[in-house]
Amino acid sequence: MTFEVPDLPYDYSALEPYIDEETMRIHHDKHHAAYVNMLNGALEAAGIEGKTVKELITDLDSVPEAQRGAVRNHGGGHFNHSLFWEVMGPVNGEMSSELNAALLDAFGSLDDFKAKFQTAAMTRFGSGWAWLCSVNGKLEICSTANQDNPIMGSEYGGCGKTPILGIDVWEHAYYLNYQNLRADYVTAFFNVVNWAEVSKRYSETL
Ligand SMILES: [Fe+2]
Fold first, then answer.
1. What is the pLDDT of residues 42-86, one digit of tens each?
2. Would you state the pLDDT for residue 1?
3. Closest CA to 168 of 145, 201, 141, 195
4. Which of 13, 26, 62, 186 is disulfide-compatible with 21, CB 3.0–4.6 A?
């Protein structure tokens, strides 16, 4: 079986004015599609089939060395973007009481959480992601380079934690609308976080 780009769970224009339609079209239809195509090509070359993308990127040592880098980069790209589309939406959705309590416990206030998340997104030099992760219900913020993900092993840039929210800080995620102003994009991002989806992902880590 080969991987496919999942449909967006909303219209391309649904996140405007915070994320513009053209950015969403290019990001989803071109960038995400490229990761999926390259992943499929690497798996075919490696003779690997029947694994989920999560299984692949959490066990990169089992991928032949010749394709390991491609599976890390493009499998990570597929996994990361699939999460990204789902944790955003045209409405914020309701945060569960469990997630709200965990955010307050970890960061003191929602504003303090946002500030720390923004710092992680701003201090990721070059291309990468900032994440809110759950470790058995305890929340932590981290960031990864390129298309690495926290669920990857430490030798691949991960930390074994489970991401429940992530922001793509590659320039392709914001450059058309925000140019070099990553901070404005990161600030706007909170207007399109689907807290109901993030809460669901949090509950699965408990
Ligand atoms: Fe991206």
1. 999 999 999 999 999 999 999 999 999 999 999 999 999 999 999
2. 59
3. 145
4. 13
| Per-residue pLDDT at 63 | 97
Q: Calculate how far, in angstroms, residue 193's C-alpha sits from the geometric centre of ligand 1.
A: 16
| Phi and psi, residue 34, nearest 5° | -65, -40
Ligand 1 geometric centre to CA of 31 (Å): 7
Structure tokens at 178: 């925000």
Q: Cα 48 vs. chain centroid, distance in angstroms?
A: 24
* Cα 135 to Cα 188: distance, rounded to the nearest angstrom: 27
In degrees rounded to 5, what are phi and psi of residue 131? Answer: -135, 145
What spacing in Å lies between the alpha carbon of 1 and ligand 1's midpoint? 24
Of 203, 205, 2, the closest CA to residue 97 belongs to: 203
Domains (range + CATH), the chain: 21-86 (1.10.287.990), 97-203 (3.55.40.20)
Q: How far is the CA of 26 from the centre of ligand 1 (A)?
A: 10
Distance of alpha carbon 197 from its chain centroid, rounded? 13
How large a percentage of the chain has pLDDT more than 90? Answer: 99
Helices 33-46 & 76-86, crossing angle to 10 degrees?
140
What's the gap in Å between 19 CA and the centre of ligand 1? 13
Q: Could you tell me the distance, in angstroms and rounded to a whole number, from the CA of residue 79 to the centre of ligand 1?
A: 11
Answer whether the bond into residue 163 is a cis peptide, omega within 30°.
no
